[in-house]
Each structure stands twice: as C-alpha cells, then as structure tokens.
Design a protein that fits this description.
- The chain has 513 residues and is α+β, with helices and mostly antiparallel strands.
- Helix 9 packs antiparallel against helix 10, helix 9 crosses helix 14 and helix 13 packs antiparallel against helix 16.
- The chain starts with a helix and ends in an 8-residue tail after the last strand.
C-alpha cells in the first residue's frame, strides 16, 4: 500500500514538473522570438544601464553629459545585473536574460508561497499567465523582479515562524535585501505584509522576534538612503511639498481587472482573466466538499489580501511632488491576483489536474498572442533598430516618432501593446551607442544628468524639426504623411528602412534650408 502511494505521488510530481517546464518554455518565447520588445520604459532603463557600463569608455562620451552615482538604493540590483552581464553579452541580450529570470522566478515564487501555505502547487500554474501583467508592458523590469522576491520572502517568513528552520531564516534575510535593491514600492509592500503575518504569529513570539530582526538590515539601508536623499536631493527634485492624484475607491474597483491583465488592444487578455477567475471560483466550490487540511492558510491569505487592498485604495494613482512617480496604486491588483489563485483549499494530483487545465490554456494563449503581436511590431519597426545600429558611437541623435505618439500614458500606441510604446524611443540611440538622451529618467541612479542637457517632450515630437532642435547631428524620423525634414538642405537622408529614415546634418543651423 505504501509503495502504491509513493508511485502515485512520484507520477503526480513527474507530470507536474513536465507541465511546469513546458509552460516555462512557452513564457520565454515572446522574449527571444524577435529582437524588439514593445515595453514602454525599456529604452530609458537600458540607456541608464549603458551609462553605468560604458561610463569609463571615452568613445561613448557618457561622462560629458552625466555624473556617475551608484548607491545602495533600490534599482541597484537591476542595473547591476545589466552592468555585469554586458561584459559577456550585448546590452539587449542582458536585458532579455533579466526578463527571462523574472518569467522563471515569478511562477516559482508563487509556488513557494503556495507550499508554505499548505496549498496545492498546481494552483501556481496560473501564475504563468499573471506574470504578463501591466508592469510587463510598461517595462517595469526592476519592480517585476522585486515582486518575485516579495513572494519568496513571505514564503520564507511563514516557513520560519512555523518550523524555525535556519535555512528559512537565511532565505528571509536574503529576500528582504533583494526586494529592497529591486524596488522601493515592492519592498514597502513586502514589509507591510511581513508585519501583518508577524502579528498573526504572536503565539510563537520568539520566532516572530527573530524574523523581525532579520528584516532590520533592509530597513537600515532604507533609512540611510532617505537621509542621504535629503542631503543630496538626487531623486526628490520636484519641491518639498506633496502633490498627487487619486483614482478613488469606485474607480479603483472598476479598473481592477485591467490592472491585473490588460496587455494589448482587444478582449483576448480579458477573456483569459475571466478564465482564470472562473476556474478559481470553481475550485473554491469543489474545495467545500473536499477541503485540504491547512487551517492557518486562509487567515494568512486574507490578511495579505487585506493589506494589499488597503494599499490599493490608499495610495495615489501618481505622485507629482516631491518626486515624479507615475502608476503607483495601479500596480497592486497584479500583486493580489496570485494570492486569489491560492484561495481554494483543494488537494490536486495528476489524476485531477484537469481542474487547472484552464490555467494551462491561459498560460499558453497569452505568450502566444504576445509573440504574434511582437513579431508584427518588429516587422514594422526593426528598420528603426537597424538605423540606430548605423549611427556612429556617441552620435547626438534625436528620434522623432511622428504620428506614433498620441493620447495619454495609458493609451495604446501600437497594436502590439496597450502601452504607448513609442514614448521612450528617444533613448534607444543612447542605449545602443552612448552619448545622451533628450528624454531620460532622472532617478538618481546609476547616473545623474549634468546641467544644460537638451530636453524634449516626447508627446510633442510632431512639432520638432532641425530648426527647433539644433543641438543634434542626426535625426531618426518616422515617415508619417510625408516628412518635413526631407526638404531641408541642411540635412542628408542617409538611409530609409521601412517606415524610418535617418538624416545627418551636413550644414550648420545658420545656413538657409
């Protein structure tokens, strides 16, 4: 009888591992199938990574426009990984490796939390679909990494307070530091969740105190960063007061589904979200008849959901002062969704794995849809990257995405994404060739711009030409209803590939066009 039980367990584990590996491969296809990824912030982040990696190389001329500023603050992990990987691969490949690490780690982190809560690991299969959330299309790579360590950290905390294992204590310490060095918001939410879980663990107060002590190092680093920031004003540069905008409870509730899984124009992503929700509800109904004995899981899950829900309602949509921080509260629903997946206390084996087949369907359909859309995006815009490749190193280049930038920051700029993917194309030349970008994040790490750099509003590139932007030697222009730069005799059309044309200045601005 014992041998038969072991055979069933082993077979269930083998099937689970096989399904997990297949879904991991499926999730990675959109990243590696083509060169370009239509993710909003990616060009800016890669430009900052280039600034750090090539700061000491005079041929990139980074130091002429920026000051190196590397500190023990959030974002350090992401930029540090890109910096190190760029010694052995290209920066674009380094970015894809980091994104791949996220896509691998995110479902594993949800699986780790599921097992720490005594929930079936099969429920974590839904995390493969949820890994592609709005943070993905907006290119919040560092934040996305932080969410992985957030779930891993919560799982380590639960294992430690439940069993007191030293390995879990080490994991908690490491995760708390990794989530801090990833993103400040992920770290703050992680801390709030830890406090709530420790309150629930008051009966094992000695372990709870030890766990709290393990969180202190990241707190010390945060306090040190705040003191340093008040002295140097590297990130909080928009005044001393506080100014922000809120969506409101009613709007937050209405927008919840799109904050979980809105990825591209159309309704396919919402249908996949409905499939995940319906499956979770069905499993909850099944679990009423065959509950899994894990009495402490539900209070812990509901507590974490309550903490995140309160933060979702309380936090602003965006902050204007003392720093510029967009899309704050909308990040919360994507963090709550994996916890909702783990609510059903149902025991699943390979014979009953059909209950989570819809999770597998969503985990295959979404990356397939992204791959198709990303391929089309590359077909239309790969000429842009090839023209950037032709630029000399450190060339002063202005990208004019004419006809492609419209609407607001949440309007789709392309059929491949629900995000305005062209807004940060201005930073691609710096990311690949160095020099400077006329539109680059100033977040105090890993570099800061020197005074006097030219700046242009990405939302108004249709009104910019060689006369209004005389600081540049090269202009990379999207052909939209013709191109006014084509008749400017101070410019030479060097090449046109697809919908993009590269111009070189051949006469000074004082000459007549």
């Amino acid at each position: 009888m014992r041998g038969l039980r072991r055979l069933v367990v082993d077979r269930s584990s083998a099937v689970f591992v096989a399904v997990w590996c297949a879904l991991t491969v499926a999730a990675l296809v959109p990243v590696w199938h083509q060169r370009m990824l239509p993710m909003l912030d990616t060009p800016d982040h890669l430009a900052l990574a280039r600034a750090w990696h090539s700061y000491g190389d005079p041929s990139y001329r980074i130091a002429e426009s920026y000051v190196l500023r590397v500190r023990l603050v959030p974002y350090l992990l992401f930029y540090g990984l890109l910096n190190v990987l760029s010694y052995v691969v290209t920066l674009e490949t380094a970015n894809k490796l980091v994104l791949s690490a996220y896509l691998i780690l995110f479902p594993l982190s949800v699986l780790s939390l599921a097992r720490a809560l005594g929930r079936s690991g099969w429920l974590a299969l839904g995390a493969f679909a949820l890994a592609f959330n709005p943070g993905w299309i907006y290119g919040f790579a560092s934040y996305l990494l932080g969410t992985c360590f957030l779930y891993f950290g919560w799982a380590a905390l639960l294992r430690f307070v439940d069993g007191g294992r030293p390995r879990a204590a080490v994991a908690l310490l490491v995760c708390s530091l990794l989530v801090y060095f990833s993103h400040v918001m992920a770290w703050a939410l992680f801390g709030l969740g830890c406090i709530a879980l420790l309150v629930l663990s008051a009966r094992v107060w000695r372990r709870a105190l030890v766990a709290a002590a393990l969180l202190v190092p990241s707190l010390v680093l945060a306090i040190r960063a705040i003191v340093q920031e008040r002295r140097e004003h590297a990130y909080m540069t928009h005044g001393d007061g506080f100014s922000a905008t809120w969506t409101g409870p009613a709007g937050s509730l209405t927008e919840f589904p799109k904050r979980v899984l809105e990825l591209f124009p159309g309704s396919l992503d919402m249908w996949m979200l409905a499939l995940l929700a319906a499956t979770t509800l069905a499993l909850l109904l099944v679990a009423r008849r065959r509950p899994l004995p894990a009495p402490g899981a539900l209070p812990r899950l509901l507590t974490l959901l309550g903490v995140l829900a309160a933060a979702y309602v309380a936090l602003p949509y965006s902050i204007k002062q003392p720093m510029s921080w967009w899309y704050v509260a909308p990040r919360l629903p994507a963090l709550m969704a994996p916890l909702l997946l783990l609510l059903p206390p149902v025991e699943l084996t390979w014979r009953r794995a059909g209950w989570v087949a819809p999770f597998v369907v969503a985990a295959v359909v979404l990356p397939t849809a992204l791959t198709i859309r990303y391929s089309d995006f590359n077909r239309r815009n790969l000429g842009f990257m090839r023209l950037v490749d032709r630029l000399p190193r450190a060339a002063k280049t202005l990208v004019l995405a004419r006809g492609l930038i419209y609407g607001d920051a949440e309007s789709s700029g392309d059929p491949a994404s629900s995000a305005p993917v062209y807004w940060h194309f201005m930073s691609w030349p710096m990311a690949l060739k160095g020099g400077f970008s006329p539109y680059l994040f100033d977040q105090g790490i890993p570099v800061q711009p020197r005074p006097g750099l030219p700046y242009y509003n990405v939302a108004k590139t249709d009104g910019i030409d060689a006369r209004t932007a005389p600081e540049f030697d090269w202009y990379l222009v999207h052909q939209y209803f013709g191109d006014p730069l084509a008749d400017d005799r101070r410019l030479s059309a060097e090449a046109t590939i697809g919908e993009w044309t590269l111009y070189r200045r051949i006469a000074p601005m004082s000459d007549e066009p």
